[in-house]
Amino acid sequence: MRISSIQAFDDNSPMFMDASTIAEFTNLYESHIDTTLLQAQCHSVKVFLTMEKEDERNDDDDDDNGILASLSKFNTLTMAFSEVLKLFRIVATLPVSTASNECFFSVLKRVKTYLGTVRTTMGDVRLTHLMLMAVEQKLVKSLNMDDLVDDFAKMKPRRYPLLD
């Protein structure tokens, strides 16, 4: 499967509901998808979403775009679009699961490379905490460091007092 086959599910793409592109994607999930029914539903979905898009243009509401918006539009029509709905659900979860895994491996490589020069052995707990901090940089930067130091100092008694 090429990643470009996901474009067949984006109503802003020129490949939207293209039968050959969807067939390429469906080959991976053919045990779960009725391909004959899918072919019949693809044309109906394209017409349905095109009409919905026209109605939205008339209402001047263009907040709903993309795969998730399309999924939500016919999510209530499960009987009419059962096979297409299955594929939309699969497509909606693919980028998230793939991107998060790639992000964590990328961060792991950076953390281990940086720490390899500082320290060669590290416990799993410390590595996990450093990875979370590296992935969630925006959250970490929003924390008040003075409060963190105070909380750390109060955790357990130390030989040298951290607080006065």
From TrEMBL:
One of its GO terms (molecular function) is protein dimerization activity. InterPro entries: HATC_C_dom. Residues 71-139 form the HAT C-terminal dimerisation domain. Pfam families: Dimer_Tnp_hAT. It comes from the Eukaryota. This is HAT C-terminal dimerisation domain-containing protein.
